[in-house]
Structures are given as structure tokens and as C-alpha cells.
Amino acid sequence: MSNSKFDRDVRALRATNPSLTLKQARGRVRAARAVSEPAGAFFDALGIGHELSGWNPQTAWAATEFSAGLQIPVGRERIESVGGATASLGSPVVTDVAGRFCVIAGETGSGKSIAQEAWILALAALYSPTRLHIVWASYSGGRAPQVPHVIAEYNWLRDSSANAAQFVAQLDTEISRRQEVVADYGGIGQYRAACQEDSSLPPLPDLVVIVEEIQRALDSSSSSGRMLERVLRAASDAGPTIGMTIIVSAQHAQDHELRSLLPRIRIVHAMRVNNEYESQALIGGPYAVSLRLGFGDGLLRDADGGLIAVRGFDTTEVHDRSIQVGVVHDYFDRGGPRRIGRDIAEAITAAAAASPSPTSASAFTAAPETLQPVRERQEIGDLVERYNLADVNALVALLDAATADTKVELGG
User: Who's near 66: CB < 8 A, 6+ residues apart?
Assistant: First the structure.
């Protein structure tokens, strides 16, 4: 997009919305026009094709119900030119996360939350709720994608020591439970093969445990933080045998609490980090310092130690290219801006509802507190950030304009 075209669109937007500052107008034009990763790339990687309406994830679920591993696309390979700039994007990069300790790391604005959402959506799109369960634990208020695979969700754990202790205790219990289930079979692979032969055996879905902002979770000053470190060590040791995968997100790899776990981490998705020491700790070199912010660029260190330049899939993209800048009617009508992540999650939920699965045993209970206030708070924050608004008052003005049918057309 040329600067002149960008400037024309900004002027057109301000002409029909005189109250907008130049910064706000520029932000809204970027929100509607700047696309770092085509939606079609994520659709293709998940086998969706061109139209989400014609996709049925049950086809993929049937193919993977008794398969080994949890192989997911995490982005597209970045083909770099001389000087390190991205010259082109190649094929999807697929990695097997089953039974492994994984970390998605990067500073604020690097795109780690979007990458994390893409990983979860890929898992849910390719593996059924009877094959895969997800437990979500956030110490900062983040939300799990709304897919039926999520059996427990814990939020704002940094503000509730009781809930944090409950999450850690249940994780510890689940490790022991799974060890007992597979003890006579040698491991989850053999148990799953036995299930295929004997339908009376209860299913044992793989369990993926997401811990957001792990450095806050491992606060050594709290008893639950110290216990969580011990439990994560146990999970990393037993994970391949019992079918437990740990995926954590972190801003600072050099934090004392996280540093002790780094030797156990098998898969690293490093995005832009603050300094060479953190990059070295994560991927064995300084390369993550120079990654660009805001484009989803990262470096994947797989379980074999190889390093691949990737661009993560953008789950926040609005897949309707005719979207009009500043028009957020869908916020009222359908629960928020239409993002490909939200639409994929809804398609997965509909497919699961059409074919209910039997309940599997688990040590985890439902989330210990109502999360609706957290969701509303996060939804507002998402909108303020998406439209590059100064504060919530600017969001209110934007929503008021939307209810008045204010629409803005951009130049072609």
C-alpha cells in the first residue's frame, strides 16, 4: 500500500468523521487494510479450503482419532533475503507438540498471544474433543479460545491464591491419575491402541495445559508458585508417557523462576525478545532480538534442535475484505468483530455439538469462578487496541457512531 493511497484513505475517513484525530484515523485505516498474513493461509493449513461454511472438522477428527502425536501447523516458513528481510512465505511449518514442554516467548507486541491462539485453534480443528482436552490457566486475565475441548479455565490467578493452588493441585492429581491408567499398557500410545480394539475401555484424551504469563505463575514467594514448578517438572518427565503437553507463554526468558525450567523445554517459538541474553537462552543465538514487532515473525526451535524462520498465522484478521473502517455493528449483533479465530472456534463448536462425545474422566473441575466480567473487560480492551483508540471513552464514541449507521467507504 503506497503512502499516497494510505493518506487518501485517512483523509476520506476524517472527512466523514471530523471528530477523529489524525492518529485515530490512521489507526483505523491500518486496522481495516493492513494484513500481515492472509486468512486463506490458515484456512489452507487446517484443511478448511476457501469457504468456512463448507468445512466440517469431523473429517479431520476421524482421521486423527487414534493417530500418534499432535501435529499442528504453527505458521509459514519465512524465506529471508540478504539482510534478514522476509522475501517470501513458503509452506506451512508443522511440528509435533505431543507430550512436550513448549514455550511461546516474546515481548509485548511481538504477537505471542495471537500465536498461542493459533496453536490452540489448530489443535482443536485437527483433533476431536474425545482425542484432546485443553486446560487453560492465565495469571493475567487472558481468555481461552471458546472451543469444546476446553474442560477447565482458570483466570486472574495472580489475584486469587486459592484458585491458583486449586489449579496446581488438580494438575498434580491428573498426572498421577494418568500414570495409573496407562501403567498396565506401557504408555498412552499402547493404551490408545487397546482402546481401538476394545471399545469398553474409557478414552484417555491427550491433555494440553496452557499456562499464560508463566513468569508470574512461578513466583517463588508463593507456595503455589513453588508447587507449580515442581508439578511442571513432573509433567515434562511423564508427558510423553501419559499424553500431557505443556504450552506456556512468557515475556522474559531470563526471569529467575523460568530459567530453571528452560532445560526441559523441547519446543520454542521465539518472537521478538528484549535482549541477546534472552534470545540465547531460548534458541541458542541472538537472532530473536532483530525480529520485527507486529508481523508475527518468529523463530521455531523444534524438538530436534533445528531452527526455522516462521511467520505465525494471524487469527485476529477480519476475513471480509470489504469491511468498512470504524463500523463495528457486529460487536452488537454477533459478539464482537468477525475474526477468523472466532469463526473457526464457532465452526468447531457446532461440529462437536452435532456429534456429542462421551464424557472422559479428569481431575479437573469447572472453572472456580464466573468469568463473564473478565471476558467483558478483555473484550473492551481488544476493541480499544484494534481500533487504535486512546481510551474507553473513544470506544464509546465509536460504538455510538456505529449505532447511528455511520459508514465509511475507502478508496479501492
Answer: 192, 193, 195, 196
Pick the CATH number of 35-369 from 3.30.499.10, 3.40.50.300, 3.30.230.10, 3.40.50.10420: 3.40.50.300
**pLDDT digit string, tens, across residues 335-390:** 444 577 888 898 899 988 887 766 677 777 544 443 333 344 445 555 555 555 55
- Give me the residue label for grid cell 467483558: 376
Q: Which residues contact 300 (CB under 8 A, 6 or more apart)?
A: 74, 75, 93, 95, 267, 268, 269, 270, 307, 308, 309, 310
Domain edges within the chain: 35-369
151-155: average pLDDT: 86
With CA atoms as reference, report the closest residue to 95 among 344, 305, 343.
Answer: 305
Instruction: Show the CA angle centred on residue 41, arms to residues 36 and 47, nearest 5°.
Output: 155
Q: List beta partners, residue 354.
A: none
Query: How far apart, in whole angstroms, are the C-alpha atoms of residue 340 and residue 220?
Result: 38
Confidence of residue 207 (pLDDT cuts 50, 70, 90): very high
96 forms bridges with which residues in the sheet? 71
Within 34-160, where are the H helices? 39-45, 58-64, 112-126
Distance CA 11, CA 410 (A): 10
Contact partners, residue 234, CB within 8 Å, separation at least 6: 172, 175
Question: How many Å apart are CA 162 and CA 175, to the nearest integer?
Answer: 20
Strand order in the sheet with 86-96: 86-96, 71-80, 307-311, 297-301, 267-270, 101-105, 244-250, 206-212, 132-138, 150-154
- pTM listed for this prediction: 0.76
Neighbours of 295 (CB within 10 A): 19
Phi/psi at 77 (nearest 5 deg)? -65, 135
Whether 310 and 300 have beta carbons less than 8 Å apart is answered as yes
**Helix, strand counts (H, E) of the chain:** 15, 10
Residue type at 56 in one-letter notation: N
Cell matching residue 336: 464482537
How confident is the model over 265-291, as a mean pLDDT? 90
Report residue 107 as a C-alpha cell: 515481548
CA of residue 381 relative to chain centroid, distance: 17
Residue 134 has which C-alpha cell?
Answer: 485443553
In the block, cell 489443535 appears at: 123
Over residues 307-343, the pLDDT tens digits come to 999 998 888 765 443 333 333 333 333 344 457 788 8
